[in-house]
Structure prediction request, 375 residues.
Amino acid sequence: MTLNERIRHFYDTSTKLWLDTWGEHMHHGHYGDDGKEIKDHQQAQSDLVNNLLLWGGVHEASRILDAGCGVGGSARYLAKLFDAKVKGLTLSPVQVTAAKIYNEKAGLDDQVEIVEQDLLTLTAADGPFDLVWSMESGEHIPEKKQMLEQFYDVLSPGGKFLMATWCIRQEPPALRPEELQLLDTIGDLYNLPPMISIEKYRELAQELGFTNVQSADWSAAVAPFWKAVIQSALSLPSFVGLVRAGIPAIKGAWAMQYMTKGYRMNTLKFGVIQGTKPEIHRQFFLVFPLAHGNRHHVEHCCFVYVGGVIFGRSCARNWIVAVHYFGLSWCQYIHRWVEPRLPTWRLTASTSHTCRLLRVHFPCGQVMRLSLFRC
Ligand SMILES: C[S@@+](CC[C@H](N)C(=O)[O-])C[C@H]1O[C@@H](n2cnc3c(N)ncnc32)[C@H](O)[C@@H]1O
Prediction:
């Protein structure tokens, strides 16, 4: 089975049990900054959502993406709080069905839409959103950088991503063999690809062009949650439910002891991170023609900068629209604006956020390469 198939199977088989025992929020609780506040566990789960919003400084949002939404516990909460439209993604069809029932019951079916979709298939066309919310799903994603890049692409300029995720402690010092073994066990039992530290998330977000990137370690605040989950799993109805749910759920329950151990050893961390997609403007690009193929072609290009758009003129007296930054990613811009206007030319681009390589494929078969640098 692929990773996504295993994740789907895990949630398809264990969701009912979780809903019966814990309800619609499938995430940790928050027990005060030092984890010492005694409170009802469901209240602690709501507190985690509220603390994250507070920490993220989110006071309004009208279009929200809940990336990895479970049965939509957060999605409905955010929809109500901000009177927003929320789209939630999950890999589990069982969760989609359950979410629809919850949405109807809450009278939110016109505001909250939960679909079965891999968040790594998101494109700019799925957006724009002014908030991307990611509550304890990032740890399931094998390509963390791609995930953040997709968040960037679906956000509107000025929009924010807010994420709470399982992490590993910062290195160095390098993880010891017993730590690696523990992480392997947790990863295997919960279907997680290798986790990264919150500091690494931060680095990736900054590299991708997010601004106001902030992160924090909330491990102490959430660690008491696992004791409560273990206790609930030991009750008779849960035990029976567990046996009925089958192997993946039993494995998940078995893994709980390793979660508490992971926090105790300081190996496992609960990280939060936020970043803002920059507002549009003031950004412009320099265009450098690179010698390639027919140099003559390149050398006879001239570039003019008009109203933020750089036009290049080739020796063949064709105009090429090179670039403009509208807060859209390059590929998005090229696909949305450039391609339809130049039906006989093909444009392709690489995806780095600091430097774009644009290839203009002329009908005659020649290709011109341009490096585009953000400044
Ligand atoms: C621990 S649950 C958290 C659910 C929800 N955020 C909450 O707090 O109640 C993890 C969720 O991530 C989803 N997930 C994992 N990998 C995903 C992917 N590649 N695309 C979309 N959803 C994914 C799972 O389907 C599941 O709904």
About this structure: The two ends are 45 Å apart (CA to CA).
